[in-house]
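Students often ask why we bother predicting the structure of a whole assembly rather than each chain alone. The short answer is interfaces. A chain on its own may look different once its partners are present, and contacts between molecules only exist in the joint model. In this exercise we take three input lines together and write out one structure for the complete complex. Read the inputs first and try to guess which parts will touch.
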Amino acid sequence: MKRKTVQRLLSLGLSMVLAVAMLAGCGNTAQTAAPAAADDAAAPAAAADAGEADAGDTEVASGDIVDFTFFAGMPGTEINSGNNEIQDIIAQKTGVRLKETWLTGQTVAEAIGSIIASGTYPDLIDGGDGCVDLYNEGVLVAWDDYLASGKYPNLTNYYTPEEWDQFRMDDGKIYWCNVFQNTKGEPTGTAHNDEAFWVQARVLEWDNYPEIKTLDQYFDLLERYAAANPKTQDANGNEMDVIPYTCLCDDWRYFCIENAPQFLDGYPNDGSVIVDFDNKAPTIVDYNTTPTAKKYFQKLNDEYAKGIVDKDFGTQKYDDYIQKLSNGNVLGMCDQYWDFQQVNDALRTSGLEDLGCNFVPLGLTIEEGMENRWHTYGDTLNVASGIAVTTSCSDPDLAFSFLNAMLDQEIHNLRFWGVEGVDYLVDDDGLFYRTDEIRKNISDPKYRADHLCFYSYLPQYGGTSDDGINANMPEEQPSEFFNGLAAPMQKCFTAYGAKTYPDLIGSVKEDVNATHPWFPMWSYSNNLDTSTEGGVAWTKMGETKHEWLPKVVMSSNFESEWEKYMKAYEECKPEDFLAEMQEELDRRVAAKSGN
Amino acid sequence: MSGKETSKKTMAVSKKEIKKQKVLIIWSAIFVIYGFVFYYLPLGGWVMAFQNYKNKTGFLHSKWIGLTKFKFLFSDATFLRVIRNTFCMGTLNLIFTTVVAIAFAVLLNEIKHNWIKKPIQTVSYLPHFLSWIIVTGILNDALSSYGIVNELLVKFGLTDSSVPFFSIPALFWPIVTFAHLWKETGWNTIIYLSAITAIDPTLYEAGSIDGAGRWQKIKHITLPGLRPTIIVLLIMNLGNLLNAGFEVQYLLGNGLVKSVSDTIDIYVLTWGISQNDYSLGTAAGIFKSVVSIAIILIANSIAKRHGEDRLF
Amino acid sequence: MEKIVYKKSHKMPKAGDVIFHICNGLFMLLFCVVTLYPVLNTLAISFNDGVDAMRGGVHLIPRIFTTQNYTTVLALKNITQGAIISVLRTVLGTAFALAANALLAFIISQKKFVFRSQLSLFWVITMYVNGGMVPIMILYKNLHLTNSFWVYVIPGMVSGFNVLVMRTYMDGLPESLQEAAQIDGAGYMTIFLKVITPLCKPIYATVALFVAVFQWNSWFDTMLYNRMADQYTTLQYELMKMLSAVTALKGNTGAATTGQTVNITPVSIRAAATILTMAPIVMLYPFLQRYFVTGMTIGGVKE
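Now the answer. The structure tokens for the assembled complex follow.
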């Protein structure tokens, strides 16, 4: 009788397998159904893939292609690994196919922590804030010998020796390299990849492109627009309510609500503190307790009470937030460009960009007539995290040669521009350009997954390419940048006489590395851990802010709630943190003046 | 422990008995080895709590630090808060799921028509089969500003505008309790229903003859009949009081309600895994295990003293 | 399977009874609505256009019908693999657990067994202590259970609770059967397989369902132990990833043709994935349901 039950279970199970397999078979024919069953993910499973062979001279026989794994301590978009055209082309040229795994459903600390605890590492890793933990664990390969060997010139020359020195850990060795904000040739300066208060282009158009300089003007505009246009269209052409302002507080992304006060006071993004050096030695100032901070949260509180601020802002997940922005009914928010960049693709695919739903950055300050530094000119070197090779990697030489190859102009172009003739065209002067059709393709998620392969957390350059004509990134190609904008955006840029995003923000033009030699302070605070008092305070401050700031905004009695928040905040002993930051600031200032 | 006397008795007859029981002993040994490896061996990891454990140095070479981690725990306001949260949510869940399941079983038992009863039972079991991921997802949608609950609240004029359920700390515990009720009431009923069917039907007949009404029969026959089941389950679940707090809170919690949503298990995850302080995470885990064992021993002995059924 | 049939009284129903039955009926109705509505609502949303669903107001019937949410979910890269592994772990995990728990319960139920109480206590303790996440991870790593399918099957094979439930049931069986077999010279294993097992069908079904549900719904173990091993991913873990990052997965769909992905929203994807994950186990349980009421009892000890 038991056998009967078991039989029934088994046959049910089997029929389920069949049903699922059939369903999936219909959905997707070219499935990589049987991945290498190797127990060790690091084992170079030579998956002979029958990808179309690209005729190149440095080609690797497809049987010799090694699969490496990579974990990024960041959420990202998975490509169709193993079935991606450009990934295959790069694999043919370098002998390596990199399978990227992105952070999902956990914080980066949890993910890196459980990777460490489980003891199974990918071949390459960008541990984000967890890089130091990986180093402490002794599982990262030191770069020094590889850089000195001369076999990987692109990597060796990626930074100057002085810059490389800044990556050295307390044992004097280099374990990772940051891949962002590294300009080759001339900076083109079209992009603003950083924070701003953003507003939909159509809102500005509706008010005849006014000058919006302060927080009050910003919210006044949103209020007036929302009063006049309470409804808007979604991608299906149905009516829906506008959300005049939303604010993300999800997990580590709560920076969207908490760090605006530093910018509103005219300081650049030191991240965790303000550095005040007006007529005095550089001093750390806490932006959480400034009068500006209070004014800013008071404003958000007022606007929340008026129904201008999204009701769900305190609990919305990142996903929901991105969806709202993609729906086109959010008029404005404060965020980093890279955090919501993908929305532009969605707006393009849905056609909402033609209604002016794209976001324009504004460089707001708390009072009129102040300088702003939302945009900083000059590269920011973040030595706190970057790409690393782990000791689990079976062939570190190959890994470094792969990283080295990433910086070859040919491969760099493949990664960011795509295949010539398909993803971009070249005019008579050698200038790369795209047609509207190509742009439409590029913004389609399906096309991106099957065709494009950015390897976005591997070494890369900004600025201009070796040919001296083109930008390394399409979005930084001035002609391509402007032509790539939707018509309402172009109109907006023209109305303000702007050619680039930074033009719209109007930040002070100065090389931040010259004027603020300690910049950015967050590269220190990001790596604080609970082993020091300042680190404990920093962790607690973060938790307190994360919990209280939304409460303060939603409170019906701002003053008393603010008081309670300040009390909870003081209990975290922010002075310990600030003292530690001051120490680091002094160290940096001394180091620079010593040079 | 009653086992002692019985085992003494069997010992007396043992020699021949043991030979006969060889196969049982071999299998027991296999199970003991298995249990030792998977349940008892990890307990060795508890020494971590008294070390400054690092993966690199392992158990043998990590520095011994005595009770430092425990001292840190009990001076950490966050830890005291997560104990409160775990304990309160565990208690709320235990009380409500037990009471509601019993009530539901009794009421369901009053329905005499199988064609009504069966479909209700089938429906009531359904949520049990959904994972917490799904349940919390559904709950999130239902309680969101455009969800059905707010729609009804506004429609019936109970509130002017939608209630941001997940932003209000005071509502978090009730929401978690409700989630447990929704998911498990039907399922928990099964055990009580089968206990009710085991009650001697002649008792009910005798009750009817004596002129007992419905409530009296429930009060004097059904509930006393359920008593042993209730007590054993209660003891068992009391031991799990501090275990009942991870997935739901992990999935439903957010920054705004952190102070009431974080539980011991989440604390262990945050410190043990995210902050790489294995020693502290383990210390918190030890605290939980010790308290669980204490609760269950106390409950069991109270039951024993009152001559009730008990777990062991 | 209802064994007890209550004698129906043929007297006239009292007014109080009528009121009671009406109230009870209404309560049951409310209960069913509260239980079913969210599930049916999810079903409706799963067949509704994503962008449209965000406007709210979709209740039991889709407003703009589409199957696109399903094609999107089914075409996600790891879904097939996850489904295969989920089925495998459910089938194998249940089979192994059932065999192990039944045998252990049988041993503990043997009243004459010399180590009975010790063995019983040994397993009761396991219900309440554990070494914690990190030591367990280290153990699994040393046993080579990480990056392996067997981590789903072996560690959770025996559970104190299931053994307890099964033992209670076995204790309730008439001893005479076993004694008769013993007189016929049957050994313990024969008794277990030939005498006890056939009688335990209901409780086996119940425990099998317990384990199957647990196996099917688990995701945390996948995240902890098999994160980097795509070949051992499970449906629930993929679902979990989907819930936390629909936007990131959007591009990864093989089925959606150019331009269609726009109308897929986190809400609609979530709904479709929910229905898909829930469907198999919901289809399975009516088969086993009839055993529940007779099967599940739990008893303690009493002097």
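Check your guess against this: Chain B touches chain A at residues 54-56, 144-145, 161-162, 164, 166-167, 254-256, 258-259, 269-270, 272-278 (CB under 8 Å).
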